[in-house]
Amino acid sequence: MKVPFVDLQQQYRSIKSEIDPAILAVLDEAHFIMGPEVYAFEDEFSVFSGVEFTTSMGTGTDAPHIALRAMGIGAGDEVITQSNTFIATLEAIIMAGAKPVLVDMTPDTYNMDPDLLEAAITDKTKAIIPVHMYGQPCQMDEINAIAKAHHLFVLEDNAQSVGAKYKGRPTGSLGDAASTSFYPGKNLGAYGDAGAVTTNNEEWTVRMRMMRDHGSSRKYHHDVWGTNSRLDGVQAAVLHVKMKYIDQWNQQRREAGAKYSEKLSGVGGLKLPTTHPDTDHIYHLYVVQTKDETERDALMKQLQDNDIGVAIHYPIPPHLQPGYTNLGYKLGDFPRAESYAKRIISLPIFPEITDEQIDHVVENIKNFYAK
């Protein structure tokens, strides 16, 4: 039996009767860049996220970059984020002209450790970017309290957790603003690159909407620094269709995660995902830990040899990437992120995964540890 890591083809087939006419309508109306589909999606996503404003973007990396710029963050400033995030979080900070400052993750949820924030704050710090890793929100009360005490902005990185909740409130509404990605493999994914920023700050929204369109509030009049990061109509049409299903799909992910946790409990000493009692985990990824890198790599090989898709999120922490040596970090600076990068493995999970597919993955893992 083949078990893909994600199955975007199956998801497309399940909503093809809605997706195809939605795309054709954009083509018929020639609303290729921005247009009514984009504005309608922004309004819909604002309601979903519990905020007043959504500014769509051309990519999920542009979203935090432009948000930081709108906050007035730039050269000479520092922005704190976590040491196990995807590289795009650091890219956005650097593109805004600021310096990324890293803190380590918690030992259980893979999210930012609030206890490490105070030591990382300097007189140059202007913002904190907590990353809701793998589908689980960060401990936002603690993070927001520290930010408030030091007069810092909080920009959620919500790329992996659209639809998750913290103490009953949706991600995307928990800080001063939030960036997200609609990369195709995300829980709410477009059919190409796309992103957005959600916020209740009208001033930032006005600025971001100019910045994404060459700094322009009207054609050929450029009021502020800008770039080209406009969402196209086709992606907005796709996202509009998918919005009807995101809650259902997230629930199916929760159910799949629960089945994995039940069936893998006590198997081979694997450390399974931990859900904090304040959060609602939507399992963008189902990540387990082995005892060491050798075991992890051998387990991955067995699963791949049996047509089971697996991945590592992420194999090298940002501070150890060759392109980021200028940040001044070294091996040993973030021991949790470094250790976990050698031991984690992401198992297949997507809304359409069947019980038979989960059983096949579990059986192969049990066979591996029975050797």
UniProtKB/TrEMBL annotation:
The keyword Protein biosynthesis does not apply. GO terms for molecular function: pyridoxal phosphate binding; transaminase activity. The modification N6-(pyridoxal phosphate)lysine is found at K186. Keywords: Pyridoxal phosphate. The active site is at K186 (proton acceptor). InterPro entries: DegT/StrS_aminotransferase, PyrdxlP-dep_Trfase, PyrdxlP-dep_Trfase_major, PyrdxlP-dep_Trfase_small. It comes from the Bacteria. One of its GO terms (biological process) is polysaccharide biosynthetic process. Belongs to the DegT/DnrJ/EryC1 family. This is Erythromycin biosynthesis sensory transduction protein eryC1. It comes from Candidatus Kerfeldbacteria bacterium CG15_BIG_FIL_POST_REV_8_21_14_020_45_12. The lineage of its organism: Bacteria, Candidatus Kerfeldiibacteriota.
